[in-house]
Design a protein that fits this description.
Radius of gyration: 13 Å
Strand content: over 45%
Shape: globular
Largest sheet: 3 strands, antiparallel
Length: about 70
């Protein structure tokens, strides 16, 4: 079961995903993103040291490092 965050603004549920992307310099970096449907890259829990917050303007959930 994918980690889910519900938007307070729209009421829609978003599922957390993660994947490795190759940057222009050739370095690999892990990215995290929310999507409306749980796909093959969906993950079950928040990564260590991150928290979910909601964009005030759009209502979309986002990840940020804990302060």
């Amino acid at each position: 079961m994918a980690f889910t965050a519900k938007s307070k603004k729209s009421g829609k549920s978003y599922h957390l995903h993660s994947k490795e992307v190759k940057l222009a310099g050739g370095r690999l970096q892990r990215i995290y993103y929310f999507a409306g449907e749980a796909g093959e890259n969906a993950i079950d829990a928040l990564p260590e040291g991150y928290e979910v917050f909601e964009n005030k303007r759009t209502g979309l959930p986002m990840l940020r490092k804990k302060k």
